[in-house]
Fold this sequence. Notes:
194 residues; mainly alpha; two-stranded antiparallel ribbon; 8 helices; 77% helix
Amino acid sequence: xxxxxxxxxxxxxxxxxxxxxxxxxxxxxxxxxxxxxxxxxxxxxxxxxxxxxxxxxxxxxxxxxxxxxxxxxxxxxxxxxxxxxxxxxxxxxxxxxxxxxxxxxxxxxxxxxxxxxxxxxxxxxxxxxxxxxxxxxxxxxxxxxxxxxxxxxxxxxxxxxxxxxxxxxxxxxxxxxxxxxxxxxxxxxxxxxx
Length: 194
């Protein structure tokens, strides 16, 4: 298959080091600078009654950290793999929302209306991100190996499934009823003193 023009441009950018140097540098610089600006850990300057962050110091530190990161080929490879897999996780979540949104008609669909499912998917995404990092570090096989060696995998699987079923089928009104009953007892007890 002949190489297309756009593929040739991508290969040219690869040879220039855009993906191995420039993009990781911009990513790390932006993240570190944003964190320093948000946390204001280097202090602030008061000019005309306004509090301004020390952008010069923040930018220098962010630039130094970014240069140190791109100097390590292992860190750059790790960041590239992690970011690519996180994007796949993001696409998976968006595809799920698109498919569920088909059954919602013209209503705006959001998981915030379903507290249990919202928490479940937040937890699932967290587990996915942790697994991506462990896999990029080549540590995932050791973590999974622990459960395989001691033969806890079937037990763990059953516990997770049972816990998930109990959480989903739990009646959310039961806790409210208990709280209401305790409140009634408390009020009735208070009335007996009179």
